[in-house]
Design brief:
alpha+beta; Dna Ligase, domain 1; 13 helices
Length: about 400
């Protein structure tokens, strides 16, 4: 179902690929902690595994859309999801439109399932590698292929929107590298673009303006839970519903890790089997459950509702008793911001660099599969230190 294969390029050609990935595709942070995080290897999915992944992620997308529609006007549910109350009016007022991008990270498990522990619905990344490596590595041969076309799906979603703003956290170069790739795609398709912070949104005649330029649509690469910090939040509350926005703020409903706990209590009948098979049991963090969490440490994972790159995820089986108790103590300070998720066992894969734990990431644009962004880590926890691994599919 899933295997590995080393790049076919010579060492000199691999060096050129890495150089061009940095300078032609803006992937500047190829190193972390002194280690190159782009493996010269690929995951290889069988045709059946690829079909399963596509079916699962497209089905999950439909299920989370249905959940969002049910709760986006429910203030009590939004509080339980850990969403800042000041954003409730914007979440309620945003219209539905064909500008949606998400990434679902699926873990192969020892019992033969694909499991997803959270949804990357708010500001999913990985564009540079997902498009850059297929461009640079070329035809993989041997009956293999690159599946999906993220660049085409992204550009097609903005068809009819002439000027597109790309809004990002301007203090972070790793965020800039993502929007530079997207800008190149859009400009290549004939769009005008504006790169800016969400703080640059202002009122304009007929259309909202970004840095003084009237815009027809925008892409948000700025964490939704940070929106209350913006100096122009009032402008967003007034104009946000008028600006077609890929990654609308209402996606915080799907991004919250506590969503899984509410979802199981309020899952749509047609989604129940899907959720039970592919999503781990999740419960709101409750002080009364602390003795159980301590006694059954290896069974549970503690997560903050909002966090990035695994920075607020503590797996009991990987933590020392001291680390586990410190996390419980932190969660007790703000119980509503945390949840407890039942751990599942990820199947490791053997790479030339050693045994790693894979996460097969699949992009979904407007509900349809659009390409892969996969990673692998030395522990069954994906963080900023995980390796990027190109993903190939074996033709049927």
């Amino acid at each position: 179902m899933i295997g590995t294969r080393r790049w076919r390029q010579s060492p000199d050609d691999r060096a050129r690929v890495m150089h061009d990935l940095r300078f032609r595709h803006f992937k500047w942070d190829t190193y972390a902690c002194g280690t190159c995080l782009v493996l010269p290897e690929a995951l290889v999915l069988s045709a059946q595994a690829h079909q399963d992944v596509v079916r699962i992620v497209e089905s999950l997308h439909g299920a989370v859309v249905r959940f969002e529609r049910r709760v986006r006007h429910d203030r009590d549910a939004l509080r339980q999801l850990g969403i800042p109350p000041v954003l409730f009016p914007l979440i309620a007022d945003e219209p539905e439109h064909g500008l949606e991008l998400a990434r679902y990270d699926l873990f192969p498990t020892e019992d033969g399932r694909w499991m997803v522990s959270e949804f990357n619905e708010d500001v999913p990344g990985g564009f540079n590698e997902s498009v850059g490596l297929p461009d640079l590595l070329g035809d993989p041969g041997d009956g293999l292929l690159w599946a999906g076309d993220l660049r085409r799906a992204f550009v097609d979603a903005f068809d009819g929107h002439d000027r597109v703003a790309l809004l990002y956290a301007t203090a972070f170069s790793e965020d800039l590298q993502h929007v530079l790739a997207l800008e190149r795609w859009l400009v290549g398709a004939g769009h005008d673009t504006v790169l800016a912070s969400p703080a640059h949104l202002t009122r304009g005649w007929k259309r909202p303006r970004i840095l003084g330029e009237p815009v027809d649509a925008a892409f948000r690469f700025y964490p939704g839970e940070w929106m209350p910090r913006l100096p122009n939040l009032r402008t967003w509350l007034a104009l946000g519903p008028r600006l077609p926005l890929m990654n609308p703020v209402r996606h915080l409903v799907r991004q919250s890790k506590t969503m899984f706990a509410l979802w199981r209590e309020d899952v749509h009948a047609e989604d129940r089997e899907l959720v039970e098979r592919h999503c781990p049991r999740t419960e709101p963090f409750r002080p009364a459950a602390v003795p159980t969490l301590r006694d059954e440490q290896t069974r549970w994972v503690l997560k903050r509702a909002f966090g990035r790159m695994g920075d607020s995820v503590v797996i009991g089986a990987l933590a020392t008793p001291l680390e586990w108790n410190q996390t419980i103590a932190e969660a007790l300070q703000a119980p509503g911001d945390w949840c407890a998720q039942e751990r599942f066992v990820v199947s490791p894969l053997t790479f030339e660099t050693g045994t790693l734990y894979p996460a097969v990431g699949a992009f979904v644009v407007n509900g349809r599969f659009a390409g892969y962004y996969s990673r692998a880590a030395r522990r069954p926890l994906i963080t900023h230190e995980a390796f990027h691994v190109a993903t190939l599919v074996r033709a049927a």
